[in-house]
Design brief:
The structure is a single chain. This protein has 8 helices and 7 strands. The chain is an alpha+beta fold and 282 residues long. It is extended and about 90 Å long. The protein folds into 2 domains: 1-126, Orthogonal Bundle (Helix Hairpins); 132-281, Histidine kinase-like ATPase, C-terminal domain (Heat Shock Protein 90), CATH 3.30.565.10. The N and C termini lie far apart (59 Å). α6 runs antiparallel to α7 (242-252). Helix content is 54%, strand content 15%.
């Protein structure tokens, strides 16, 4: 088969257009080596275009993430700088107040940085879960330990019920992290002197831990955004990464988190599900 010079020139021009970023359809349904070459070039160009689109999306995500991190860090750091400047000349009672506020902000920053590092590990698939059996009661007691001060400040109670001796085959450290974040969210969205109710049980499909707050509930339209990083849908005080981290951990363990928004006098309930099939595979 003779390939005409004008066809080669036309193909070359179209390739240059593709290189310049133009969308050119080179597909050719005719027979012959030139048609095969056109189709192969079109496939290659499509693959490269998809890779560029993915790279641009990842770059945009990274840019937005860095902007969000910068914003989240800037607020407490600015607050601490202001209080530090006023500290020396402030009355003694104000000095005590400023020092207490600075300590609180430092704890917030420490938690934020720690959480971001954990999310980065999960995003990079750099986490290797070590699975072992642990009773629900032990798991919950360890998850509640970091929240002791918050519980005392808010004068909240935590009620545990269900099958607390039920064994969960999981990575204790990471699962505890997920549970802690969900309980913390429940505490922050419940009034002072309220009760957080935690129930443990299982069914033929999964083992589960439900955590119910005493808040006003969550509109159904806002449930999905709860797990979107930095959304802060439920509280302007929050960083918007606790629940996304919890979900990322549960997904890494082949589990999930379901939400009953409640409302009409009923608080929201978060259910952490651990599926039996995953246990059998492991």
């Amino acid at each position: 088969m003779v390939i005409k010079k004008k066809d080669i020139v036309a193909l070359s021009e179209n390739i240059r257009k593709i290189i310049d970023g133009q969308d050119v359809d080179l597909r050719d349904n005719r027979e012959g080596p030139l048609s095969i070459l056109k189709n192969d070039i079109h496939t290659l160009a499509s693959m490269k275009r998809e890779q560029v689109d993915i790279l641009e999306d990842e770059t945009a995500l990274m840019r937005n993430t860095m902007e969000n991190i910068s914003h989240q860090l800037k607020t407490p750091l600015t607050s601490m700088l202001i209080m530090a400047d006023l500290l020396e000349e402030a009355p003694r009672d104000k000095q005590t107040e400023f020092l207490s506020n600075i300590k609180r902000e430092l704890l917030h920053v420490d938690w934020l940085v720690s959480t971001l590092l954990k999310m980065a590990k999960l995003d990079a698939n750099a986490v290797f879960f070590t699975l072992e059996d642990v009773a629900a009661k032990t798991l919950l007691e360890q998850a509640l330990e970091p929240l002791q001060i918050l519980r005392e400040v808010r004068e909240q109670q935590v009620e545990l019920s269900g099958n607390l001796e039920l064994a969960f085959h999981c990575d204790i450290a990471w699962t505890k992290e997920a549970i802690t974040n969900v309980i913390k969210n429940a505490m922050e969205h419940s009034p002072s002197r309220s009760i957080i109710r935690i129930v443990v049980d299982e069914n033929p499909i999964c083992k589960w831990i439900s955590i119910a707050d005493s808040g006003e509930g969550i509109p159904r339209t806002k449930i999905k955004s709860l797990f979107r990083r930095f959304s802060g849908e439920r509280s302007k005080k929050g960083f918007g990464i606790g629940l996304p981290l919890a979900l990322a951990i549960m997904r890494g363990l082949e589990g999930d988190i379901e939400v009953d928004g409640g409302g009409n006098g009923k608080g929201a309930t978060f259910v952490l599900k651990f599926y039996h099939d995953y246990y059998k595979l492991k």
